[in-house]
Amino acid sequence: MFDDVAPKYDVVNDVLSMGQTRRWRKIVVDAMEVSKGHRVLDLAAGTGTSSEPYADAGIDVIACDFSLGMLKVGKRRRPDINFVAGDATNLPFADNTFDASTISFGLRNVNEPRKALAEMLRVTKPGGRLVIAEFSQPVVPLWRTMYTEYLMRALPAIAVKVASNPDAYVYLAESIRAWPDQDHLAAWLQESGWESVTYRNLTGGIVAVHRASKPVDTAPDSAAAAIAAHKGPVAKLRRNIVR
Ligand SMILES: C[S@@+](CC[C@H](N)C(=O)[O-])C[C@H]1O[C@@H](n2cnc3c(N)ncnc32)[C@H](O)[C@@H]1O
């Protein structure tokens, strides 16, 4: 599905969110609190729009996704970003690789989201941060009703006019409605081993940004063991780099 929507993905996003995505993305980047010298994983990065601010700031960002269609559009647009093909539930990275990990509007699309949370924990360094941006539940009932009307009626109608694959946007609306609310996702994070879990509602809860940290006192760095077990995740990573 994402291979199909890739060519117009970013334009359609801007239209359907009425330009809100730019503001949401800035808040996510600020929440990451990363700077030059840090290595960042942007998981389910798609065309790399969510990775761009890190690359622009000179931060070493890996944009990982399993849709080659999305990755190719991204690589064409931003050849300077490292795009890596990988499945969120079985990441091609060694333990404790990244100073911080993030996933924007992607966790909801992963078949086994809790497995992805565990994988992000594994590849993030002890003490490292996780930031998730995902559609969520508006908190005020009237706003929730208006938003649900927009999602189920207006959004698919607009998508027919602007998108190459309107069915994908029916899926978008349905997947947002089926997705757990803010507290539920926070509980998943805690159960996956993340600590200091907090969240912030954006646009009245249409989007929530969850933040968490990897505990410092986890098992000692097991990167060497992972290399031995998998004949070297670095070699595996090289195979997946999108050129
Ligand atoms: C809505 S896009 C988000 C792209 C980008 N993060 C953004 O903010 O624009 C969701 C992405 O999740 C990716 N995705 C879904 N399941 C995945 C998985 N198991 N592993 C890696 N990527 C996945 C899709 O291929 C798609 O590119």
TrEMBL record:
One record GO biological process: menaquinone biosynthetic process
A Pfam family hit: Ubie_methyltran
Catalytic activity reported: a 2-demethylmenaquinol + S-adenosyl-L-methionine = a menaquinol + S-adenosyl-L-homocysteine + H(+)
EC code(s) of this entry: 2.1.1.163
Gene3D superfamilies: Vaccinia Virus protein VP39
GO molecular function: demethylmenaquinone methyltransferase activity
Role, per record: Methyltransferase required for the conversion of demethylmenaquinol (DMKH2) to menaquinol (MKH2).
Protein name per its UniProtKB record: Demethylmenaquinone methyltransferase
